[in-house]
Design brief:
By secondary structure, this protein is of the alpha/beta class. The chain folds into three domains: 329 residues, TIM Barrel, CATH 3.20.20.80; 205 residues, Class I glutamine amidotransferase (GATase) domain (Rossmann fold); 57 residues, Immunoglobulin-like, CATH 2.60.40.1180. The chain is built from 17 helices and 25 strands. The strands form four sheets. Strands 10, 11, 12, 13, 14, 15, 16, 17, 18, 19 and 20 form an eleven-stranded mixed sheet that branches. α10 links the parallel β7 and β8. The longest helix has 29 residues. It is globular and about 75 Å long. The protein starts with 13 loop residues before the first strand and ends with a strand. The structure holds alpha-D-galactopyranose (GLA) and zinc ion (ZN). The site of alpha-D-galactopyranose has 10 residues, from loops.
């Protein structure tokens, strides 16, 4: 497969989003207007059918797809393609009433009632049958439609089911995982603790809220199982699409949710053809700057991008204006929409899509932002901003299919996140594993270096610098992989709270970080101090006598054979080592024993990047910078995230928005951006 999301270049970036015409079938005037307005806004794609089951199959076995065919025809004739969802995310009432087993059971063991959405059991054979049937009918009705661009499986998978079917599947999953040997499980889960021993797999229950939650391995494995159950369920939908779709080359995706906690997306990613996700940053909040919000969104893009590095991803949903489900639903300020769209493309997406085209008149999302508001006109602020974005995307069409060539990587893993959070240690509120990973990622971005976000399963071969923040759970062979990386000349930074437990949450014996990683870094972490928010310590850097502020966590080290680069400034561990380095020819393994304020660590990162020979770029503060590489061109993206006017110097290439050649300075207003094309 080549790098294009759709298997072939379509010479455009997708600009579209969720469209729910089934809510307006009695209003042909509205449906007509929708298409007219979508065209005016440069919309070239509509995502259909996400919640249409009740309209497809109003009674069991009675199918109606004429309306869908009509809508897809009309869209297609007007240059708008369709991404077609399978409707499994919300079920018709008749289905739940007749077959209650399709509804989920909650963590207290109670069966849900019909309602809301995303409320089905992943194990129910009956649900799987019903879903396969509706997919079959859908594929037969519109599977060969010329406007069909892609299949979209269900919607935003999430949540857990604790029903008896899921429980049995969990037991079978454990039986396989622990080689049908209950004593192996008892050992790996350390169940002799609090008399938790099992004598048979059939005795194991999920960690019900009112049940067994004291076994770390059980809690972790339940989360892994839930991901696997989604994978298994999703495969049923994918198989149905593949079996019944007359066109075999239409790619399949499902929409992720960035740093969504409940599912290890990397497992699902392997089953789909393209990654897509829904991004809803809390713009203009009262807890972080605009730049922080934007960088978080970019980090999430990088996680998505990292799951399929050989292809662009899609931004399947975003809010054209405001959302309706946050604590405070604030308006996106003028210009933000456009800059966010360009950031998305800069991050490696080939689309900017929305939820939604037109606001629902009633029900739970009637006040959620849309291209077309209740006022019904095409002259609203939001409409104009979306239309402007459409123009911008058409000017960036050439970017389609281009990729990243990142030289640095930050490791971020879901099951490590679960394991850290599940550990009864440290502090309740300051573990913040995902934001720590984000912060390291953003730090490198400040040097004009965009790191990949990867898992320990990924190859490290293409990287020169790898950062391993808080890898509490060190799986088998990962220490060896990191060792190979350093021995081949790589620069590695490992932080506090790494290598405490194995993949079943059993503590490593013989010193942290375990499994031989302590040998690589040349230190052993003997104790860890958890600081209250008001506590302070510092690390004094020997080389330049600067002090980095320490907060939250400080490990006490025994140094075996590493060079000490910094020592604690306070408390009973004053003067003890806190930053070390062990050399392996050109390769180096650094160990950072405490959580520090990254803003004070610029000099250190500069050094790491230099040692790793990663290409950096001197950027004015407040500029976010990305690159994408096409066949013959390189695309550079500069975004001004600050409140100030910024002058960029030494810009050379074609300004893709103005079409002019630039050679010199470019002034960027706040929320401004520049996309430059350079021929390689
Ligand atoms: C999610 C869903 C959409 C819609 C939006 C609202 O992303 O997939 O159906 O509910 O949220 O923000
Ligand atoms: Zn279930």
């Amino acid at each position: 497969m080549n790098s294009y999301v759709f298997g072939k270049p379509v010479n455009k970036l997708i600009h579209g989003g969720d469209y729910n015409p089934e809510q307006w079938l009695s209003r042909p005037d509205i449906l007509e207007k929708d298409i007219e307005y979508m065209k005016q806004a440069g919309i070239n794609e509509a995502t259909l059918g996400v919640f249409s089951w009740a309209m497809y199959e109003p009674k069991e076995g009675e199918f109606h797809f004429d309306w869908l065919v009509q809508i897809m025809d009309n869209l297609y004739q007007n240059g708008i393609s369709t991404i077609l969802a399978t409707p499994s995310a919300a079920r018709p009432v008749w289905l739940d009433h007749k077959y209650p087993e399709v509804m989920r059971v909650d963590g207290m063991g109670n069966r849900n009632r019909h309602g809301f959405r995303h409320n089905h059991c992943m194990s129910s054979e009956l649900y799987r049958e019903k879903v396969s049937l509706i997919i079959r009918k859908l594929a037969e009705a519109v599977g060969d439609h010329p406007g069909l661009l892609m299949w979209h499986i269900s919607n935003e998978f999430g949540g857990e089911c604790y029903c008896d079917k899921c429980k049995s599947k969990f037991q079978e999953y454990l039986r396989r995982r622990f080689h049908n040997d209950i004593e192996e499980l008892n050992h790996e889960w350390w169940t002799t603790f609090w008399s938790a021993r099992y004598s048979d797999f059939s005795e194991i229950e999920p960690p019900y809220n009112n049940g067994q939650t004291a076994i770390m391995g059980l809690n972790l494995e339940w989360k892994r199982f839930t991901t696997r159950n989604y994978e298994d369920y999703m495969s049923v939908e994918i198989d149905a699409v593949r079996a019944y779709s007359p066109k075999k080359d239409i790619p399949i995706t499902t929409n992720f949710m960035g740093r969504f906690y409940g599912i290890d997306y990397r497992v699902l990613a392997k089953k789909i053809d393209a990654i897509s996700w829904d991004s809803y940053p809390a713009f203009h909040n009262d807890f972080e700057s605009y730049a922080d919000t934007m960088f978080s969104a970019a980090f999430d893009n990088a996680i998505m991008k990292g799951m399929k590095k050989d292809k662009p991803f899609l931004l399947m949903e975003s809010a054209p204006g405001l959302v309706n489900w946050m604590q405070y639903n604030k308006l996106k300020r003028p210009g933000v929409h456009e800059q966010f769209a360009v950031q998305t493309i800069a991050s490696g997406s080939d689309s900017v899509q929305y939820f939604q085209m037109r606001k629902s008149r009633g029900a739970a999302e009637q006040f959620h932002g849309a291209l077309i508001d209740h006022i019904g006109t095409n002259d609203t602020r939001i409409f104009k901003e979306v239309a402007k974005t459409g123009e911008v995307l058409s000017k960036l069409a050439e970017v389609e299919g281009s990729l990243k060539k990142n030289e640095a990587a930050v490791i971020f893993e879901w099951d490590n996140w679960w394991a850290i959070d599940g550990a009864g240690a440290f502090s309740r509120n300051t573990k913040k594993y995902d934001t720590v990973c984000r912060d390291y990622w953003v730090k490198l971005m400040e040097f004009g270096v965009e790191p990949d976000v990867i898992s320990t399963e990924d190859s490290l071969d293409n990287y020169k610098l790898v950062i391993v923040p808080m890898l509490f759970m060190l799986k088998d062979n990962i220490a060896q992989k990191l060792t190979d990386f350093v021995e081949k000349g790589g620069i590695l930074l490992v932080t506090y709270i790494t290598g405490y437990v194995n993949e079943n949450c059993l503590c490593y014996q013989g010193g942290f970080p375990g499994d031989g990683l302590s040998k690589l870094v040349g230190v052993i972490s003997e104790e860890i101090d958890t600081l209250y928010p008001s506590d302070r310590n510092g690390i004094r850097i020997t080389e330049d006598d600067t002090v980095w502020e320490v907060k939250d966590y400080a490990e006490i080290l025994r140094v075996a054979d590493a060079e000490v680069l910094g020592r604690y400034t306070d408390d009973f561990y004053k003067d003890m080592p806190a930053l070390t380095c062990k050399k392996y020819g050109p390769g180096k393994a650094y160990y950072q024993a405490a959580r520090c304020s990254l803003s004070q660590m610029d000099g250190f990162f500069e050094k790491l990047l230099k040692e790793a020979q990663v290409e950096t770029k001197l950027l004015p503060a407040g500029i976010e910078y990305h690159r994408r590489y096409g066949k013959d061109s390189m695309f550079e993206f500069y975004l001004n995230l600050s409140e100030e006017v910024i002058t960029l110097k030494d810009i050379c290439g074609e300004n893709m928005i103005s079409g002019e050649q630039t050679d010199g300075s470019v002034v960027l207003e706040p929320k401004g951006y520049l996309v430059v094309k350079r021929t390689r």
